[in-house]
Amino acid sequence: MTAMMRPEGERPITRYLRESQVGPTAARIVLGAQLRKLRTAAGITREDAGKAIRGSHAKITRLERGQVGFKRQDLADLLTLYKILDPDRRAEYVELADQANSPGWWHEYSDVLEDWFELHLGLEEAAALIRTYQVQFLPGLLQTEEYAYAVTRIGYPNAPEARIDRLVQLRMDRQKLLTRPEAPRLWAVVDEAVLRRPFGGTEVMAAQLRHLLKAIEMPNVTLQIAPFSVGANAAAGAPFSILRFAEPELPDKVYLEQLTSALYLDKQEAVDQYTAVMDRLCTEADTPQQTGAFLTSLLDQLG
Q1: Angle at the Cα of 28 (from 276 to 10), degrees rounded to 5?
Q2: Fold observed for domain 13-101
């Protein structure tokens, strides 16, 4: 069994990634994790590994965390340093690196895409489960085009209309994730205030509510409403998402979006803390079975 294979009876990681349609971000993280295991097994420090590729220990850290792409020469030098000399084994790593370096579907939006959000799109594409809590806007994966225009203009008040158009189209293309083969499961908890803010006006919000009623009929979409009565002990106060992956090499990640940047947390202590908050929210929010009636009542109120 080669080093790139999973336990007995399972497929090589490279084949798993191809068949699971996992994108370049996941491949980059998997390859980084593999190289970290090889380095530690060989008893080589990050400093020495950095010298082997004419870099620093910080560069090795970024590579092992999947934060940057891989140059073929750097990969070849690291594999030689780690005593991976068999051509077939080296070819597997090169194949994974090629996949990690391939452009994602979002590459065509590089003119408007922020670097910090590009990583989120890649992780979202690789996720098997996306849990999100929102307190201001509806999740981007569930927004209508008109609603997306309204909230994007709020976030980019001075942007030209052409940039707004591109950002909204990016969001619409992103939503194809939910209807692709082997689509991830989306479990969203939304604060009641989000649904009572008429972004874009009454007609836009009414269309958005009807869209949500259709979305919750999808087998991979769960939506819960956190009513005003949910106590402060459950509410997180700020939006966050937790992404879980089928590939065991990918740890759960917490995504915290800010105004002009984002934080990505994967230390187990932080992930456990946010998971506990999410679990409390799901427990105290209205049940998914109550969501349809709540949305319908809001529609009736809008007339």
Answers
A1: 80
A2: 434 Repressor (Amino-terminal Domain) (1.10.260)
Compute, in degrees rounded to 10, the torsion defined by CA atoms 76, 79, 81, 85. -100
Residue whose structure tokens are 């910090």:
116
Domain range list for the chain: 13-101, 107-302
Instruction: Give the pairing of strands 127-134 and 185-191.
Output: parallel
d(C-alpha 69, C-alpha 241), whole Å: 25
pTM of the prediction? Answer: 0.83
CATH class label, 107-302? alpha beta
Residues 13/96, Cβ–Cβ less than 8 Å: yes
**Residue 286's closest CA among 236, 196, 232, 226?**
226
**If pLDDT is split at 50, 70 and 90, which confidence band does 1 have?**
very low
φ and ψ at 130, to 5 degrees?
-120, 115
Segment 77-136, tens digit of pLDDT:
999 999 999 998 899 899 889 988 888 899 999 999 988 898 899 899 889 999 999 999
